[in-house]
Model the fold of this input.
Amino acid sequence: KWGRKWTTNQVIREQKRKDIQDVLRKQGIGAGSKIMIGSYQKAVGEVMQKLSKDDWDEADWLAEVWNTTKAPPDVQAELAEKKGRDYCRAFAKEMWQKCGAHVVMMVAWKDGNGGPMATIHDFNDTLNDGKLFPDGLVIEKHWLNYARDIFGVNNEGQGDDTDREDGPPRKKISRGRKRPEITLPVLDDGTAQLPNVLEMRAQEKKDLLRTFLTHHYCLVSGQSKATVPWLSITENPQLYFADQYFPEKIPFKEPTKLTYGQVTEILHFWRQRQKHTPHDIFRFKKWKDFNGIMCDPV
Done:
């Protein structure tokens, strides 16, 4: 909930997230699976039982520090990705219920890699007879430039053209019940980076999977609007990418035909690769042209 205060337990969960995930992984419990939902608290308890008094004292002290100042940048970035939209929605609802006010929120933050992210949240169409603010797209480019400025991103020579590929990573305007589309952060070599997916809903994860693969297919084909040949890849994925880039036990399918658990496992697999080889998360080795001929990377 927005406005919450950090507790000692919450600090420990943040600091020991990797240990908690290791406990679940050793038990064969995949991230985002139904089993994980019921097993997560037990894993937390197992990790907490191993903590010393000094660990608890430090967590208690950190909770006070985070509440009086702010949490570390990596924690802030993760919360912004996981909870930012929910915080804004809760604030908009409370402003309407208590003050009768309509609000549109412009939000900018740094992601886990220190890059700028920006979005505009508008939930007014969900408030009784409210309607969306019609000029969000008009002000978006100014907000994105502001995000560049406050986070120290060099904007020379870019002017107001926020559609450039070298602009800041951003989320498109969030309108009411619709989930904002994500423009993925991209490294210098064009490798897209995946955000934290722990608390994403099923459709959000499938959209992210589609966006990520489409981005890399556009890279290999040299076409900015290439269409991924899902069926062709499904029939013979080895023609298109090496085995190392995809979980061994999960079949390649068009995202809507994958289960929630399968999508979660694929994204988790890539997130692990991203931690160790951020420039080599996934890549296609071939693409199919309009004549059905398999081509080398452009």
